[in-house]
Amino acid sequence: MSQMFDFEVPSCDGLAFIPLSVRYHLDAGDRRISLAQWQALPMADRERLSDFPVPEAGHDAAATADCVACLDRALAAAGSAPALDEQSTASGTGVPGLGEDAPAAPESVCRQAALHGMAPPDEAAWRRLGRFQRYALLKLSRKDKPNHDFRAAMQEFGLG
Question: Taking the chain, what is the end-to-end CA distance rounded to the nearest angstrom?
C-alpha cells in the first residue's frame, strides 16, 4: 500500500474503503465503482489495485489504463458488474481541478479549510503540493460539510 497517505490508514484499515490512489485512477479513467463492489473484491485484488503508482506531476495515462484494466478483470472474476463509465470532468485527465496551471487552491478547498477553522493554502503552498496531494484535498473537499480527514490531510501536507 505504498500509495496511501498516513491520514488514510485509519479510514482504510484492512482496505475496507477505497483508497485515494484507487479513486485517483478511477477518476482519471472516468470510471466509478460502488463501495459494495470494492468490498466484494478479494483482499489480494484490493492490495494490487492500491499499489498502482500515482504521478506527482503530469498524468500517467498508461498507469491509469493498467489500473482500470486490472479492476475490470477483478470485478469480472468476483462476479460483479464492470466499473461504470462517467463523463470526463476535467482538463484532459478526468481528474477535476488538477490542471497543471491551477495557480491557487480551488474554492472547495478554501471552503473546507474554513469549515475546519483553518487558513486555506496560499498560492505558493498550493503550487508546492504534488498532484496527488492536490487531488486528495480536492476529493476531501467535495461536500459542504466538514470532512473527517481534511484537517489531518492539511497537517500531513504541511498546511496546518
Answer: 25
